[in-house]
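Late entry, written up from scratch paper. The run itself happened at the end of the previous shift, but nothing got recorded in the book at the time, so transcribing now.
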Amino acid sequence: MVGFWYCLINENGEIIKKYRPTIESFKIKKAFLYSASIIHLGSMIRKEALKMVNFYDEYFKFAQDRDLWFRILKYYKLGIVPEFLLKFRYSSQSISLQREIEQKIFCLKAIKKALREGVYPKWYYLFILRHLNFIYLPKPLRIFKNKLFNQLGLRYDQK
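Output as recorded:
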């Protein structure tokens, strides 16, 4: 499975931000504990890999892709093509914003499953704290934190 560098665009097609996830395999794997280094519509997956992990698990509502990535990581290395091959329009109507808490809860469940299944060492359970912190933070503080982290460049999915 591979992903690409991508640009976030606004409603007018203007680039808001460029995302350059790391291209180093071990860093890609670690970054998945924080955020999706490979976004769903910016990925290519071999059919054999999908068959091997039994495609999507619908239990992980709002985070089926994250669970799928973890299951693929158990058997394969992931890669990033270091080229901007995708423009991604992020709207206020997206599931990521409309169902933010539910998505984080299911991401957390996918991470726990990956830890139980040995995709990561057990001590990586420490990385769950970040997700728990986000889930229980009031929405105004989450918005402030996201803006602050973006301004400071403290995102785990960037170089």
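Residues 2-152 form one domain.
(Scratch paper discarded after transcription.)
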